[in-house]
Amino acid sequence: MRKQVTPATFPFFSLAQSPGISQLMFIIKPCAQLAPHHHPRADELLTLVQGGPVHVGMVDEAAAGQQSIMLQMNELDLTMIPIGDVHFIENRQCQDAIIVGSFSNADPGVELTLSSLLTLPDPQLATALGLSQNATAQFRASTKPTRFQPVQDDGSCMRACNITQ
């Protein structure tokens, strides 16, 4: 199986040390999603190198009341993700999507949204989710945050791509 994430950051790629930038190439498998996350120290320029179309979703914190934005990227399209904006990428196609992320910082950082939320103590997590303590405990026990995960739909993507779990 191929690696899904290839960093071009220092110390993996020594030329990235001086200009203060970095890149990351990643593969999103068919019917998969790169989980909601953000980069606390960098803007990101996404390039869909191969495959697609893919869907990019982001939360624009600068909009009044925060807005969810959905974009479709086709092969060789570019889109910008502002620093700190929560975003995700879905590949609902039957071939790999190869994407390059270019960052405005040699160390952009990455924080998975769900992983961060799950670090809250139970009472604060229950309040944030609007759930009872018992429901929160069940949610925590049944949730396993990962960077890449299958898309959640009625199973049509998996059937169309002949993927079994």
Automatic annotation (TrEMBL):
Matching SUPFAM superfamilies: RmlC-like cupins (SSF51182)
Signal peptide: none
Domain Cupin type-1 intervals: 10-137
Pfam family, one: Cupin_1
Name of the molecule in the record: Cupin type-1 domain-containing protein
